[in-house]
Amino acid sequence: MSCSLFFLFLRILLLLCFSFSSFSSAATNKNLQASNTNMDPHETETLFNIMETLSSDQNWRVSHPNPCKPGSSWIGIECKNTGHDNLVHVSRLDFGIPPNPSCKNTATFPSEIFRLPHLESVFFIQCFTRTKTTISLPPQFSTSSLQQLSMRSNSELVGLIPSQLSSLKSLQILTLSQNLLTGSIPAEIFSLDSLLHLDLSYNMLTGIIPAQVGNLKSLVGLDLSYNKLTGIIPNTIGQLGMLQKLDLSSNELTGSIPESIQTLRSLVFIALSSNKLRGFFPEGVSKLQTLQYFIMDDNPMFTSLPSELGELQKLQELRLANSGYTGTIPSTYSKLSNLSTLSLQNNQLTGEIPVSFGSLSHIYHLNLSRNFLAGVVPFNPSFLNRLGKNLDLSGNPGLCLIPSDANGSKSNILGVNVCGNNNKSAGSLIKPWKMSEAHQHGITTKSSFFLVSTMIPVALLNHLFLYI
Ligand SMILES: *[C@@H]1O[C@H](CO)[C@@H](O)[C@H](O)[C@H]1NC(C)=O
Ligand SMILES: *[C@@H]1O[C@H](CO)[C@@H](O)[C@H](O)[C@H]1NC(C)=O
Ligand SMILES: *[C@@H]1O[C@H](CO)[C@@H](O)[C@H](O)[C@H]1NC(C)=O
Ligand SMILES: *[C@@H]1O[C@H](CO)[C@@H](O)[C@H](O)[C@H]1NC(C)=O
Asked: InterPro entries of this UniProt entry (predicted)?
């Protein structure tokens, strides 16, 4: 449920970004109104060629003879007067989805973009979707100004990531997400030391994560999720001191979390779900004091839950489901006062739910289902009401609820027996337990408030990392 909300916010943010980008484009062209709008004829011709490779509007050359002229210019083009000469230059191209020009069915990757010497940013979103094409660079090219290259959701963009991309020395944002790129990640990419964001997610990349990844000292966001990467998480990842977001989920990574991860002191979001990572949490994980999201479902961990995670004061989401965890739930987790989501379902956890969990004042989603937890559920009625359907304790035959807590329909939703109701499954496991103990952690009901307040950080986080 929080997941679908997450994606809803993602979509809203995307929309905001698009409206903002078209707005800023219009504004820049307006600034040119008073000044000269002459272009270098070579640059104009290159631009016409790019247009003809991509656009379904084939009259463009005739209808827009002066592409940078305000009012006559095409949405999706931004021009700049660099001040060095008396000319305007194309600084941004944006193709694919409205309001930008759509790409024709036969559109292929226009390597001539690399011949526009003042181009700073390029966006091809849902552009190459009918005709197979590959990313290619001309043998010689002049542009060293390119700061952002973003190609997303191009279902016919296939082939390798060319190692020649490493000659784009000014590149800060490289997004090649949701295409059909294959082969391994060329290690040369990691010589682009201006890179702030590298997103190669949702492709079919194979091979290892090159150790050279540690060279990207300025990197803020690294997303290699949803590929077929193998091998270990290189220890050099610990050199990325500026890194805020690390997403390696849904690959085939093996080994364990590298010890060096403790040096990522700016990390806010880490996702390692759906890999083949095993056992062992480095003790130093407690040093990640800026961490807000720790997402690591679906790995064959088969170890005990690391109590160190209880030291991560800023943690808002902790997901460790479907990973074969054994032993008890560390009571240190109840120190996570900002925790809104805790997912520990489908493990092999035993023992009781820590009594102190009742004092998790920001918790909104708690899933402990399908474990071997036993004993009395230590939550009072206001806690149970606050979480409502977002509390899942089902599939723990040894758990039971005290009748007064279970009053109303909630006990059905929880899928937990009322203590004493079933002599076989619960009765023998119930230990004597004082009611006052459970009720001393009274919390007021503010579920709608918590829903809103926990979503805001997620939205902000996405805003930070969305470079489309
Ligand atoms: C808890 O979260 C709120 C907002 O999400 C933030 O203002 C506050 O600083 C956080 N507290 C800690 C201890 O991180
Ligand atoms: C808890 O996890 C189980 C198993 O993954 C899932 O089926 C269930 O919907 C989850 N419950 C809640 C309330 O999210
Ligand atoms: C359950 O709630 C009803 C009102 O909803 C109340 O009359 C009843 O006394 C409660 N039972 C217990 C055991 O608290
Ligand atoms: C539990 O079992 C005892 C006898 O073993 C029986 O007298 C009692 O009624 C049972 N309680 C319930 C709630 O089934």
From this structure: Leu-rich_rpt, Leu-rich_rpt_typical-subtyp, LRR_dom_sf, PGIP
